Amino acid sequence: MARGKFIVFEGTDGSGKTTQMKLLGAYLRERGVATHLTHEPTASPYGTLLRSCMAGKTDADEHVIALLFAADRIDHIQNAENGMKQLLEQGVTVLCDRYYFSSFAYNGGFVPLEWVVELNRPAMEMLRPDLVIYLDVSPEDAMARIAQRGERERYEDLARQKLIREKYFEVFARFRAQENIVVVKNEAAPEATQAKLRKLCDDLFGGNA
Ligand code: TYD
Q: Is the CB of 13 under 6 A from ligand 1?
């Protein structure tokens, strides 16, 4: 059986990646592609602890957060029950909201990037995405979307959003040779963005999606 495709969505907070990922999942399923949608931080005990840190309910140093994200990711790949690696081997295509580039862009801005890269080296070796889609919005537009959502989390202010976006582009340039990264401008009309993503997927599946 053909291995499923592993497609990762990246972007700053409020980039619209969750909406776009859901639309793309529906598109693939309509085409008969077995598709699983997932996200990081995950719903596992590691991810649950992380969410509590992100929401400020559990006090945590940035080093602890970076370590927890790396741990959550390895569990997400390897877990015997619902791990991504196993699903891909079973022929399921996996769409994942955030992966190691989120750690580089977010956590690598607060603790040394080299250390975060080392923490994520096992994940990079275990499971590399077939495609990384970066949904690009201006930090101002991202903040406007976050404001609409109400509650603010740990990394959500304009200056930080700018830094995180810059960090994404820095690491994309660094890992360009070994990763398949596509930067997609998120258009005001969600359908326009979705059309670009569908085209990318059609190409990835060689016209067989
Ligand atoms: P997420 O639930 O995807 O938030 P959003 O829907 O706003 O994109 O991610 C929660 C937060 O976790 C987000 O601010 C980014 C941060 N994060 C990291 O700092 N490092 C990581 O490795 C990951 C996966 C997420």
A: yes
Q: What is the pLDDT of residues 39-75, one digit of tens each?
A: 999 999 999 999 999 999 999 999 999 999 999 999 9
Nearest ligand 1 atom to alpha carbon 14? 7
- Gap from CA of 108 to ligand 1 centroid (Å): 13
The rounded distance, in Å, linking the Cα atoms of 209 and 206 is 7
What's the CATH number for 6-204? 3.40.50.300
Query: What are the structural domain ranges in the chain?
Result: 6-204
* Residues 42, 188: Cα–Cα separation, whole Å: 29
Query: CB 1: neighbour CB atoms within 10 A?
Result: 6
Task: Output the pTM of the full model.
Answer: 0.94
- Ligand 1 center from residue 125 Cα (angstroms): 22
Name residue 135's amino acid.
L
- 102-112: pLDDT as tens digits: 999 999 999 99
Contact (CB, 8 A) for 51 and 44: no
Please report the DSSP string for 17-63 in residue order.
HHHHHHHHHHHHHHTT--EEEEESS-SSHHHHHHHHHHTTSS---HH
